[in-house]
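Sequence only, no structure available. Ideas?
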Amino acid sequence: MEIDKKIIKKLIDVLEDLKKSTKGIDIETNTQDSTVEEIDDSKSITSPLIGTAYLAPEPGAKHFVEIGKKIKKGDTVMIVEAMKTMNHIPSNLDGIVKKISVKDGQPVEFGQTLIILE
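Reply:
I predicted one. Tokens follow.
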């Protein structure tokens, strides 16, 4: 692939013109919310393996957990599929579900936070 120097020169000129036209104008470049939520690791359920997370036992079925639901230690909170094996992920704590950190069908890593409890 050959790069056309004329196109690059034209792009540089356009960028220089843009810089000149915005001189003296304060442009905010950070569009993300700067507040960071503190996560208490002692009240979170993490993935014990790498795979694909499923929030329900089958497509269209009721989810294992929902926000606000009270769960007990040992309750299945989701399934992580790894190498065509469906692994039920049990809760390691009692508590109320505050946040579900993954979406149905999302790939997860070892140690990734799946659920945060109150």
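Residues 30 and 36 are 14 Å apart (CA to CA).
Hope that gets you unstuck.
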